[in-house]
Design goal:
317 residues, mainly alpha, two-stranded antiparallel ribbon, 14 helices, 2 strands
Amino acid sequence: MTFKGFLSLVEIKTKVASIIPFLLGTFYAIYRFDTFNFSNFIIMLVSLLSIDMATTAINNYYDYKKAHKKHGYGYEVHNGIVNYNMKESSVLFTIFVLIIVAIIFGVLLFLNTNLIVLILGAISFLVGILYSFGPIPISRTPFGEIFSGVFMGFVIPFTSIYIHIYDVNIVNVILQNGLIDIKINMLEVIYIFLLSIPTITSIGNIMLANNICDIEEDIENKRYTLPVYIGKEKSLRLFKMLYYLGFMSIVLLLILRVLPIIAILTIGTVMIVNKNIHLFYVKQTKKDTFIIAVKNFVVINITLVFTLAISLILRRL
């Protein structure tokens, strides 16, 4: 397997969907709690990228193995295994190595923090594998948008915040004398959830846009995704409404003074997002307009990350 083939197999360009939520959580932890743990930051980054790449590679492998129609719809180009004529053994070995790396660094992160990180990591790891693996992968069901949105859009930011503040009892689980004692600072957890809504909705919309573009192919290959169930028209309305929900959560956090006032710049991206929504309404194809969902995700959430970073710079001036 060539390096270029590997990048295609793991769809390296899509890793932005995990890196941006990771950075959002990191900058929020620094802004709100004034703390940063460099070693935990690096360890989580390696584990996160490894499991994300492994999940994508598994998804491409199972698409390759289960596809009923392997010609047309751009299949020969979009599936890296076909495009680069990869050996199945090489693909499986790559997946195995990525999973092992993710587990090793995940365990290291747990040893550096506490039980909460182990629980979140184990659940995320399981969902990541089941998303593409098994008799009925999550990605082939109507629940793909929910799982991808919640786990990448909320669990990643929450964990990337928690690894820096694990010792301040935002969430804590204590096992003692056979009893489990759970302590949760509900207000801070709610704030983190509100912060994550733009990532939850825009990541869910990446999956939704992908499935809208693939309705015909998914029917052909017996992938019963959400758009297949509810139809294209309702899917497009949902696509639009999810973005507005994300903007509403930012407004609420500004009113509550959880985010710095400069974060209001994120609301300004609604003009770009609306323009892209209109373009996607006109035409839905992988080649021409799927990238719109990725652009919307990036423009909304990178702007939010930058405003947090700028507020930190201004605070120290």
